[in-house]
Amino acid sequence: MPHQVALTFEDGVTKVIKVDDYETIMDASYKARINIPSDCRDGACGTCKSFCESGEFDPGDFIDDAMTEEELEKGYILTCQAIPETDMAVNIPATSESAKTSAATFTSRITELDRHTDTTTTFTLEIDKRADLAYLPGQYMNLKIPGTDVERSYSFSSGPSTEPASFMVRTAAQGAMSEYLRDRAAVGDEITLTGPFGSFFLREPKRPLLLLAGGTGLAPLLAILERLAENPPEHAVHLIYGVSREEDIVGLDWIEEYKAKLPNFTWDYIASEEGTSAPHTGYVTQIIEPSHLNDGDVDIYLCGPPPMVNAVAKWLETEGIEPANFYFERFAPKEKTGGDPETGAPASAEQVQESGGSITRSEAVSSMQTGRLSFAKEDSFAQLDARMGLELAITELMMPKITDEQLKNLRRLAEATSTCVEGGSVSEPEDFVRLNEEFHEYLFTVSNNPALLESYRRLDLTEQMAATFESGTAIFDRVIQDHFDFVEAFEAKDADRAREVIMAHAKDAKFTMEGAIEKKESL
């Protein structure tokens, strides 16, 4: 029976492929016209080494020069050798552009439309070439509003196995999609979809699940419940649905149906406004019980507005609870990418162009932010490998054309990081994380290559460093010298030396991150 494998690229694009029994991930990728970087395809070179975020697999045959047994234990795989034994999520150290793949576009028509309340509308789409649309429960699509060039991002509320695709949308007083759904949407309207997008999707259940929904953030969690119902896990699944007011309470019957489909499923709901029909008043954290958290051995999936995501993360920190995994999707405030926070309108094409790369087109269009709020050593190793790959690419691009002024700025940034390290340890952690980020990001900001800049900015490495580095954190001896050696390689136009420094820096940085994380975990 084929397994679904989600390939997440450095620029945020996630492609889902079907891998047959006894078939490698790479062979299935090529069949799907996705060119994962490779040289040998025999487990001998390591070019296709990637990080397995979840799932089980047969690693196949390989030699130490390509991948060590220690790396395998940490979660790395060679896609040319690995054969899935379950569904998998794999981080590919390349951009979707380099793999010659991208988000796909589909044409659809509205077959069902239900305006439940003034704040919530659901609709179902019949999609042309539905078999070609593979997505994971929790992911979202960009939908083009009929009669306009305007796009908005919405999560599927239906699972991947369902033929028609359903969506659950919050309708506001203003906003292009809100006005369309409220005033003129009708069955038969044609809607164009592009995607799928996002790293918020169900991983293989290995422990109890806690699902937290805020308003129409219920949509992707319904898709996750639908997938779970196809093969019910042995672990408990608990959903908490939080809303603001009475008119926001939609979909209780849909949730209740899963009690019959999932033997270990329970749920509850709460409204922040007093006097509603909800059994509780307040916020979702008030009705999270110790049993739902399983002493931290729990996977949390949370979708809702930014204040809710931030509040739950803060509550967990205050309570001293460290979940095994914490995946989130939040509705991004558009003012952060030059758009209108009231209507949800993204930045215009002109604004994106004028931003000089600080805003990308995908950031401007998307109103979703997806990610993971907890991480382990393996995650930081994958992030360091991804950064190394991007830095090798930006070196090839910038070495021939870097200006004298840019070289001066790069050296100035190298000098700045040196002030935060003393005697093999970090003396000013906040300053070091910020200045180190400015140094590593600089070539991307002056490259005039938005795709590479966006890929770099999607890395979570800076957030991981900020969360683990403290005053006195041990750091590898050559960290500062590496920065200066890198600058000198650019000054000498020595590409081989620059590549040597980048790769050695990434290798040594793993030991620093490993030590910092282990120290943090031991406290």
UniProtKB/TrEMBL annotation:
Cofactor(s) essential for the protein: FAD
Positions of the 4Fe-4S ferredoxin-type domain: 30-62
Keyword flag Iron-sulfur: yes
Stretches the record annotates as Disordered: 333-364
Top-level division of the source organism's lineage: Bacteria
Keyword DNA-binding listed: yes
Domain FAD-binding FR-type: 103-203
PROSITE patterns in the cross-refs: 2FE2S_FER_1 (PS00197), 2FE2S_FER_2 (PS51085), 4FE4S_FER_2 (PS51379), FAD_FR (PS51384)
CDD domains: BenDO_FAD_NAD, fer2
GO terms of molecular function: 2 iron, 2 sulfur cluster binding; DNA binding; oxidoreductase activity
Domain 2Fe-2S ferredoxin-type: 3-96
Biased composition (Polar residues): 350-364
Keyword annotations from UniProtKB, A to Z: 2Fe-2S, DNA-binding, Iron, Iron-sulfur, Metal-binding, Transcription, Transcription regulation
Any single Pfam family the record assigns to this protein: FCD
PANTHER family membership: NADH OXIDOREDUCTASE HCR, PROTEIN RFBI
Record-given protein name: FCD domain-containing protein
